[in-house]
Amino acid sequence: MAQQVVSGDALVRAYPDYLKTSDEKQIVWNDGTRMPLSDGKPDKSFDEKLKNASLLDQLSLPYPIGKPDHVPGADEDPGRFRNQAFFDKMYGDCDKHETQKRLVKVPWFGGFVEVTTINGVADKLRAVAAEIDRLPAALKRYAYPSAGAFACRTVKDTGKRSMHAYGAALDINTKYSDYWLWGKGAYHNRIPWEIVEIFERHGFIWGGKWGHFDTMHFEYRPEYFDARQ
Ligand SMILES: [Zn+2]
């Protein structure tokens, strides 16, 4: 199932403001910083990848773009392997108050959400809001109020920084949401595809496509929409 990605090209194409080039061993940032793709540990368990993902681990599970045609398997979590050093460098360390300097408030259906301007995330979210606003009322009510965007916090089961800590994630209406840690484990979703489809078109992946499902959650991960991957 897992497609073997052998270079960081998808990352370079997804984050052109920060990354210059890559080869089979590393990515090179515009400031000259080099980061290895592999951590030299090819036999890590799923849990180890969640807690300590290399860049190769981060790219190892393809995200299924488009209308879901199956319930995700238990360990089908595309996007949950995140290399913290990579995202810390790009969006800043919120514990050092770096991320906060690049946050703006984006209007979200009568309220505001706080997200980063890095990689154009705030503008993309404005576009998402405008498109959701054009959906029929019966569909768009699932999107608001937002349950939050920026939050300097970690993911419950991994202890690693959430994309919310980078200002690059948004939770929609909790009332219609399902989360693997709330229920008895069986996959459940009430969020309409029309909303998910809009987020995906702007580079956001959806937590409803994870075995460890979190159906209110969207995060900006353009590397998964790379046509050449
Ligand atoms: Zn979330």
From TrEMBL:
Residues 158-220 form the Peptidase M15C domain. It comes from Methylocystis bryophila. This is Peptidase M15C domain-containing protein. It holds the Pfam family Peptidase_M15_4. One of its GO terms (molecular function) is peptidase activity. InterPro entries: Peptidase_M15C (IPR039561), Zn_M74/Hedgehog-like (IPR009045).
